[in-house]
Each structure stands twice: as C-alpha cells, then as structure tokens.
Amino acid sequence: MVTVLERRIQHDYAVGHVLGTGGFSVVHKGVHIKEGSPVAIKTIKKLGFLQAPSFKGGRLLPPQIPISETLLANEILVMKHIVEEVSPHPNVIHLHDVYEDEVGVHFVLELCSGGELFDRIVASKCYSEAAAATVIRQIASGLKSLHASHIVHRDLKPENCLFLTDEDDSPLKIMDFGLSQIEGVTNPIVGMFGSIDYVAPEVLEKRLVLPAGDMWSLGVILYILLCGYPPFYARTNREKQALILAADFSFEDTWKTVSQSAKHLISSLLAYDPHKRPCAAELLDHPWVRGDAAKQEPLEQEIFQRLQSFNARRKFRAAAFASIISSTFMFRTKKLKSLVGYQDLTEEELKNLHEYFRKICSNGAGATLSEFEEVL
Ligand code: ATP
C-alpha cells in the first residue's frame, strides 16, 4: 500500500543527476539513504511554480511547467492502483514511494538504466522479426496485467517503454501513466490524448476509452518495428487524423520480405473497430508473438537504416514537444490538448519555438537547426 508521504524526500533519498525531462516533469537518479538502493525520482511540479529555462552543463534545459492538479491527482491514483493490483510485474514500472511537499509530487520509481526501446534496437547488432516479437511479447504481457486491473494506458509509445538494465535479456518496462484511466473509477482526461502517431480512431473521435486503444498503439509500434516508418504518415496532423480515422494504411514494397503472419497480426491490431482487435491475452497466444512464426534472420539493412533515421527524428521531435508544452503561451492558449500539433501553432508561437531551438542547438543538444527545420 502506497501512501503519499508528506515530508521532504531528502530525508530518505539522496537526489542525484537528471536522467531526463518530460513536458511536466524532471526525473533524477536517487539512492535510498539507508538501503543504498538506486531509484528514479520523477518530480511533477504543482501549479504556481513556474521556473525560467536554465543552463546545466552548458546545455539549455527547458523550463519546467507545473501540471494541473487534475492530471497530477490522476497519475497518483493510477500509480497507487498499479501498486495495489498489478505490481510486481516484470513489464510494468514499479512505484516504491510517493512524496508530496510544497514544490510538487515526487514519484520514487524503479530505476530503468537500460535505455529506451528504439534506442536499444537501433544500437543492436542483429535485429530480426524474432527480436521484434520479444519486444511485443513483453509489452503485451504488461498490458494484459494492466487491462485485467482495468487500467488503460492511453499513451503507449516507444518512449514510454524503457529497459530495466543494460543486459541483453533485460525486461522492458511500460511507464508514464499520466494520461491513463482506471475504467469506471477515473474520468478520461477530456480532450487529451497521447502522441497522435499512436492514437486509435475511437480516441480521436472521443468515443469510449477502451483497452483496445492500447492494442491499436501496440499495432503502430509493431508496424514501425518491422519497416522503420509509421503506418499513418502525413505532413500535417489533419491529414494524419484522416488516415487514422479511415484506418488507412498499407504494406508497401518494403514489406515483401516480412512474414505474412506479422502482416496479419498488424492488420488485426489496426482494425478500425476496437472490438475486432485482439486483446493482450489473445496476442500472447499468437504464433508470431510466441516466436514460432517470426523470422530469425536479420531484417533487411534498408529497414534497419530507416528505423535508425526514424529514431533520430523521433528524439528530435520529443525535444521539440517538451519545449512546446513547457511554454507558457501554450498553457494560456489552452493548446495543451494538441501537444503534438506543430501545424496548429501560430506564426508568433512558431517564431518563439524556432528561437528557442536555435538556442538549444547552439548549446550542445547534438542536433542542428536544419534538422529541426526538416522536422517542422
Ligand atoms: P511527458 O510526461 O511529457 O509525456 P516523458 O514521458 O518523457 O514526457 P517522464 O515520464 O517524466 O516524461 O520521463 C522523462 C524522461 O526521464 C524519460 O524520457 C526517461 O528518459 C527518463 N525516465 C523516466 N522514468 C525513468 C525511470 N524509471 N528510470 C530511468 N529513467 C527514467
């Protein structure tokens, strides 16, 4: 049972360096003072604690924006529910403690030091359908457990899947339950959804939020894993939405070497009707997911290279999103719900963003301005 501890986290944990930042959060490495065990501490600031952008190690860090009480309360509720109903599960992040102080809420989480899903794949020496099936199996196993406990993730995407350790056989963990819903308990955060690339048609249409929405997202992840580009690709969000709402995707030339079993599976996960998609338990029983029908030989070099460049662009976009939702003007104009919509920005906002990125790029973020412009 997790209770929110109303004392300073520094009583129990030594807070170390920054592991990463999200739009609403900053994650530090930490060590339990008495036990010496490493953890990740995710801090979400409350409203009223605006902070200007700051420099750290010569790099410009995005300003951390306070999150609304509703979102924060939702994340706490879902995380507690996971501890009570799901944990421990090898493929779901474990929450140790929650602290609340005057600054905000600190989630003490299992430390995942193995990196993000796609980073590990593009760095791997031998990547095959069988390796992709191992990934899908783990996410499906986590989802099976979450769905059995009536939790719908609602923001399943590669950046929310981290490896626990650097070991080759490290478990993959599903995390970031900020937008999640407990069926029949919490209200979906109205109008808000995760990254549009992974979002199901019924979510865009603001119909019922169902576990099947997560299965759609998993279908999108699988599609990218096997060809290196997303199934619903368009220059603008509006066009992307139209493709998603029509479940309009295809298996082009690149797919000729991919097994039929994988293609059937993707088609079933990306079915417009949520009731026609397999549930997580059914997926785990699928011959391709079990590994029996997945090809063992390495995927074509061309696919692997496309996956690498998709991942590079994805990381760059993630930095841009963090910047967008960190900007107060986005809050004021209530554009929070279109987190991913560059195309929705006004000229003025775009100019601000551009200027912000010019600063980031000239401060060692490892990306160039022209890369940013290409993304835009
Ligand atoms: P947002 O909340 O805006 O969707 P996000 O999902 O990237 O963004 P967080 O979940 O707060 O935000 O994570 C920020 C970064 O911190 C992640 O990209 C990841 O690199 C790192 N991180 C988060 N949780 C852990 C963890 N348990 N162990 C190690 N690193 C973590």
Automatic annotation (TrEMBL):
The keyword ATP-binding applies. GO terms for molecular function: ATP binding; calcium ion binding; calcium/calmodulin-dependent protein kinase activity; calmodulin binding. The keyword Nucleotide-binding applies. ATP binds at K46. Keywords: ATP-binding, Calcium, Calmodulin-binding, Kinase, Nucleotide-binding, Repeat, Serine/threonine-protein kinase, Transferase. Belongs to the protein kinase superfamily. CAMK Ser/Thr protein kinase family. CaMK subfamily. This is calcium/calmodulin-dependent protein kinase. It comes from Adiantum capillus-veneris. The lineage of its organism: Eukaryota, Viridiplantae, Streptophyta, Embryophyta, Tracheophyta.
